[in-house]
Amino acid sequence: xxxxxxxxxxxxxxxxxxxxxxxxxxxxxxxxxxxxxxxxxxxxxxxxxxxxxxxxxxxxxxxxxxxxxxxxxxxxxxxxxxxxxxxxxxxxxxxxxxxxxxxxxxxxxxxxxxxxxxxxxxxxxxxxxxxxxxxxxxxxxxxxxxxxxxxxxxxxxxxxxxxxxxxxxxxxxxxxxxxxxxxxxxxxxxxxxxxxxxxxxxxxxxxxxxxxxxxxxxxxxxxxxxxxxxxxxxxxxxxxxxxxxxxxxxxxxxxxxxxxxxxxxxxxxxxxxxxxxxxxxxxxxxxxxxxxxxxxxxxxxxxxxxxxxxxxxxxxxxxxxxxxxxxxxxxxxxxxxxxxxxxxxxxxxxxxxxxxxxxxxxxxxxxxxxxxxxxxxxxxxxxxxxxxxxxxxxxxxxxxxxxxxxxxxxxxxxxxxxxxxxxxxxxxxxxxxxxxxxxxxxxxxxxxxxxxxxxxxxxxxxxxxxxxxxxxxxxxxxxxxxxxxxxxxxxxxxxxxxxxxxxxxxxxxxxxxxxxxxxxxxxxxxxxxxxxxxxxxxxxxxxxxxxxxxxxxxxxxxxxxxxxxxxxxxxxxxxxxxxxxxxxxxxxxxxxxxxxxxxxxxxxxxxxxxxxxxxxxxxxxxxxxxxxxxxxxxxxxxxxxxxxxxxxxxxxxxxxxxxxxxxxxxxxxxxxxxxxxxxxxxxxxxxxxxxxxxxxxxxxxxxxxxxxxxxxxxxxxxxxxxxxxxx
Length: 727
Hints:
Layout (H helix, E strand, L loop, with lengths): L2 H8 L13 H4 L7 H7 L2 H13 L5 H17 L4 E5 L11 E3 L1 E3 L5 E3 L3 H5 E2 L19 E5 L6 E5 L2 E12 L8 H19 L9 E15 H5 L2 H6 L24 H16 L4 E6 L5 E6 L2 E2 H21 L2 E4 L13 E9 L12 H20 L1 H7 L3 H4 L14 E2 L2 H11 L8 H14 L16 E3 L4 E3 L8 H28 L4 H16 L11 H10 L7 H4 L6 H9 L5 H54 L8 H32 L4 H29 L10 H4 L4
Parallel strand pairs: 1-8, 15-16
Antiparallel strand pairs: 1-2, 3-4, 5-6, 6-8, 7-8, 9-11, 9-12, 9-13, 9-14, 10-11, 14-17, 16-17
Helix pairs in contact: 4-5, 7-17, 10-11, 12-16, 12-17, 12-18, 15-18, 17-18, 22-23, 22-24, 23-24
């Protein structure tokens, strides 16, 4: 019996254990070294130093670090922890950790438990063993992880083991960033500095602005045995072959439907783990496609939100195994049904309690809202190509623009009310604002922008960057992506635009304009300059592609081309002037992303070849032989051709598909050999993109046709109808 049928027969034998119901508030954050916990385990000096570091970004003295380390160890040991690790996010796309025990020996051989400030602050993983884009050679191994006090330490539970995890950045021996967190922290600080200066036009009490993030994690869940029987799912995270089932998502009956019992038990289980880790999950539901689901948390500060999402993806994958399930985070694991994204809901909050993207109740607060709202649109307009590069990846290329996700064209949706406000301001381009206009405009703004923005305009699911009431939703981010990439870009371009805005306003004030008038003049200028990026219609339509081209908006459809935006002079100036990336770091990341693209497409091509030659064609030939035997038997019985006409027709069709598959796989192999000899990474990536666009869909077409023709019992790969409908 094939793996497929073994898997199918084992499904009903999977017992599911449902965790006992627990009040969320009773377990939330119990495995996190929160400030409340710190107050209990740290001295006053250590606690105040930690608070100052978290809230003010000041470095912690190493002597005080020893006290903090001892307090963290005491807390961890009280919960049964014996090991610790620096938990970081290298450019592999996953997390990394090396566990060390608290155990050590004194000079006299006495065994003790120890965790000092040096171990808390810094460790030394091998930098040459992680992607570096040429920054580190194989013989240049030294790299450093450094503690990030702004993200609290936590305890991860794996089976019966518990490990203390210290969130850290990861840098090379020469100081370049080799992770996602370090640039994100720099971008957050750049935005804070620029945003505070602009906020002070309106409120001198604002001393800190923090970007916030609420992510929405989409994912698929399928049976573990079925997934294991699919080599493409095991090694690629997606199915490279698979005929659409008779029933997919066309009845629209899965979205928000009743959650299957096995998945429900899994959800409750991973939510329990997430709550203990301080991840504030609030929402769970069925998504549009069968076997697709979503969870979403309460908004958090960007750095912590990114850590929590990265951690949750790991938790979900581990917990799924307990339920004999597999979580698929690939952006497009199944053809013909919706893929998965990770919508990033982004805003900015002041230390005075104001959401800068929420309209206020007074003319003054509405003018501040309008300032940050328009600056966001201007930032997206000016740096749309860099935003596109931030979401570029081989898996996301399968999803973007596929009539289920935003297109590769970056545009902004603001809704009819705010579109009218912007239009009204723009139409005054021929006149200069004066004192009377100031009062009228403020009053009009107050009336035009409703107090509650959540429900006064429709949502546009086809927009890659949409205003949704008190935040912008970056919808084009892929489900497997680290949110830090898009958040680093978004915070940096916003920081840069706000710097320019302040300079433009200051210049007008110096010429004698009143502050409010100067602000409106610059807002008007930015609206005019960036209006081409505003689009309220159907982003899936062919008409929009033509319209976007007319407007001069970039339409970068593939990753190798989209990534070019990261190494332009514009990008280098942007990131270096804001202290986020150096030229060297940008070049290295460009190289890393190209290499990842090449390797992912290369793996998929190899899997396609392997499955075609070792699974598909043998199954088809076996069926072909049965047809031949049947035809020959009917001939031997003296029956005329009419008796086996259908068999001959099927036989011919099967033979034709086998031949095309065999020929195209061989051509694809030869094309890979040519591509592998290309030295330049960009040219090599473009060559692999050509291989994908030339061969993948055509080979798949013929394989999927065979799936409909070949005897079901001979087909070795689990089918969509078996994987997508959990039993």
